[in-house]
Amino acid sequence: MRAGGRTVRSRLRDRIAASDPGLLRLTSGLRTVGAIALALAVLAPFGPGITRLVAGAMTSMVATFAIREKQRRAQAVTLALGLPVALVSVSLGALLSRRPVVGDVFFVVLIFSAVYGRRFGERGTTLGLIGFQTYFISLFVGASPEGLPGMWAVVAVAFACSALVRFVLVPVTPAALLSRLREAFRARLAQLVSAHLALLEADPDDPDAVGKALEEVREGTARLHETALMIQSRLEEGTPDEGTARLVQRRIADAEIAAERLGLVLLSARSAERADTLTLHLPGAPAPEMGRLPGPEESTALVRRDLIALRALVLRSGGEAAENVLRQVRNRLLAYREEENLPAASPAVQDVFRAIGETARAVLGLRIALEGAPEEEDESPETTRSREELDAEDAAIDAEQAGQEEEPKGLRRPTTRAAVQVAVGSTLAILGGELISADRWYWAVLTCWIVFLNTASTGEILVKGYRRLLGTVFGVVAGIVLAGLVGQHTVAAFALVLLLIFAMFYSAPLSYTLTSFFVTAMLGLLYTLLHTYSWEVLVLRVEETALGAACGVVAAAFVLPVKTDRRTNELLGTVLERLAEVTEAAVGQLSGGPADDLLDKARELDQALGDLRGAVQPLTHPVTPLRARRSTAQYVVALLETCAYHARSLAATAELLPAHPSIAADPRLGGAAARTVRNIRTIAARVEDEQTDRRPDRQVETGASIASLLSAPSGDSAARYGRITTRVLRHLERLDEAVVGLARPLGVRVATKD
């Protein structure tokens, strides 16, 4: 079946690839459910009883989701080491179950060791997680010393089934995963072009339609950036060598920047004045006053036609006839990179055509890097020129090693601090949990443990605890309904358990509340299987969860606390330092200075910004009562994303210099941009002052535009200088404005300098 020239199957495949980049969530769900189902299938014929079946299912789940390494060999080693850890942990859980005080003390020591093990990397994190979870399983199923031989057999079978599913039934190699991520990037790029098309066609007389179209562009831009970061994190493992990794990284960055710029210039063309980049990065920001594209309707029709063509070029589906058409489309779009080939239109609309041409060039570069697209006989001169530029850039890319920052020691080390905090919180959870229930106290400990996972500040722990409690409350209701439906039907209960586990892992990256909901609903079914289900048990689950979350928050707030403000200030300072480094290095290269490793610097900036975005979630959460702080945090993050976009664009332009004889360095840029770099470092110093309680008077400078600081070039090189400087100036001026805008909400005085 075909729809609009593309099969329904290909459309569905692209939609799935875009919604689940690399199929990571689907793979995680399938692996976990597959390991559990296989363990149950192996154990059931031996009649081990429901208790051991539940233990086998839970152990296989832990053995599957705990593995974090990317390389298959490392995964196999960690899984092999995890088996003896699990056997020892289950044995101690059974032996100490009859000595409550000693068992509680050991549980706290185990929790401390498991969290402290994170300092030893992914393997340490995994082994700690396996040790904690299998000890918890022994408590959950009531393992006894007499039944240890049977439990050992169950654990061994669970680990074997997990290994079989991971390495044989649902294998994922780094190269295959990277390939799927690239498909996801292509699908999300096509979705973003579709959003651009919707923005073009939105009726200016319908504010709701314009707002919806703009929001789609925002979401598409954010999702494309998210996928680009995921690809960057997998490049070293998924590519044959470092040179190839850097090449793919460069082409992904080119495509992302070109697509984001296309949205910006399209928005500017439809606005009464040039749109601020902040509009694309601030969620809920009002849409600028929109009109139709200036000029005749024919210009709008041409832009619409070319956006549709660009989307087709990104998707590249169809047979040989479609390939011939796509080659012609590509030749036409690439021609827009030359001034003489631009259609007659207003300057703003011509900017749109230029952006379409640059995006087509980025798509070509991405295809060459990923697929090695050979040169074709019917290429136009513009396509040949673009290919030569890309080949020259590829030859100029070489690898450099990045330095590592010194890691804090002692209690300042995050893993040590978190281990102390979770040990104190778990002690409180054990004491309080046993007051509520002598049999189910471990649920409070589990919640306290979980709220500390992947969190670094009191605010993050508070938000995570709230989400877990909310999901648990709704999950209890679902558990009651499901338990009533299945009754004593064991097969139906296990089938529903598998379905809920799949939903739990598939939704985990999207919503922690949903994950907690599915976990609690699943527990209702497990209690039914163990013949221990009752309304009181599920209510007790809510009480223990609330207690565990409260104990985690108390420990985080009073034991070596890391306040949300301190955490966000540290990350904000890091983002500003990375921004200054990228800007200074890019401008230095554009001014004629030595080449620098701009790709790695831009990647570090993106990673730092991603960390900050996660850390400010407690400040931007919808339930926060501090509405003013919430708005300020959203505004600051949006400004930083704007700054990062312009810095990435400067870096991408700077990297074109060695390979493009038509682009020359402009020595005037260094002096003109010095003010911007100074301002960034001034704001970073102000943020550091807040952490040390110093209050020196700092100020950023503003004044004449950067363009006015440049003296006009003369002679034969004027046109060449003008072309490169126009593009760079656009980004420098927007970056300068965004940095000055960043100073005000951060409490830095702005001084006007003549």
Structure explained in plain terms:
The protein is mainly alpha-helical and 754 residues long. Helix content is 73%, strand content 2%. It contains 27 helices and four strands. The strands form two sheets. It has a two-stranded antiparallel sheet with strand order 1-2. A two-stranded parallel sheet has the order 3-4. The radius of gyration is 29 Å and the shape is globular. It starts with a strand and ends with a strand. Residues 1-5, 398-406 and 712-722 have low confidence and may be disordered.
**Into which percentage range does the β-strand content fall?**
under 5%
Low-confidence stretches: 1-5, 398-406, 712-722
The global form is globular
Q: Major β-sheet, in short?
A: 2 strands, antiparallel
Number of strands: 4
Q: Biggest sheet: strands side by side, in what order? A: 1-2
Distance from N terminus to C terminus (CA atoms, Å) equals 67 Å
Helix/strand/pairing category: mainly alpha
**Overall pLDDT level:** 81
Give me the number of helical elements.
27
Helix content: over 70%
Oligomer: single chain
Radius of gyration: 29 Å
Summary keywords:
two-stranded parallel sheet, mainly alpha, 754 residues, disordered N terminus
